[in-house]
Design goal:
46% of the residues lie in helices and 29% in strands. It is built from five helices and four strands. The protein has a four-stranded antiparallel β-sheet with strand order 2-3-1-4, with helices on one face. β2 and β3 form a beta hairpin. The chain is elongated and about 60 Å long.
Length: 101
């Protein structure tokens, strides 16, 4: 199942990693391990953040996605299932509408 992963970095901890030169190395290590389909870096709620798109075949992999961010950056992590247009098209919305209207 495709997931969107939001990672938000605490300012002081990330600043310390930037100052000591470890931010890039840590980030690369995590991304090389996770192998996201896409990774974007932005701000979210006023904090440095990452938005990752991942294909997660087994929910038991969730800790492997979240823990590196927690342990190396003390980051907040949100993981949400997402659908593409084809997924939504095959979700049976018409039947659901008839059943629940």
């Amino acid at each position: 199942m495709r997931m969107i992963v939001y990672v938000s970095f605490p300012v002081e901890i990330f600043n310390a990693a930037v100052r000591d030169g470890s931010a890039g190395t840590k980030m690369k290590r995590i991304l090389d391990h996770m192998k996201p389909e896409a990774a974007y870096f932005t701000d979210r709620d006023g904090q440095r953040s990452a938005v990752l798109i991942m294909d997660l075949e087994d929910p038991s992999r969730i800790p492997a996605i979240a823990e590196p961010w927690f342990l190396l950056f003390d980051a907040a992590v949100e993981i949400h299932p997402v659908m593409g247009p084809q997924d939504l098209a095959s979700a049976g919305l018409e039947e659901l509408g008839k059943t629940w209207a």
